[in-house]
Amino acid sequence: xxxxxxxxxxxxxxxxxxxxxxxxxxxxxxxxxxxxxxxxxxxxxxxxxxxxxxxxxxxxxxxxxxxxxxxxxxxxxxxxx
Length: 81
What we know:
The protein is mostly helical. It has 5 helices and no strands. The protein has one domain. Helix 1 crosses helix 5, helix 2 crosses helix 5 and helix 3 packs across helix 5.
């Protein structure tokens, strides 16, 4: 899985209200999502698994940093709509 594919999956499963909330956040506020959405992303997408292709796709070796990359990509996608 790539970052783009993870974002596509999130776009499918997040509610309209959740997407709106994220799109209205500033980039600096995205860090506030690390324990809610970030934790869900890390667990659902297996970012703690050794050899995770998604972790590599994020350009980092740390699951927390990878979930931040995915969330920021999601935010950019939502902000462009």
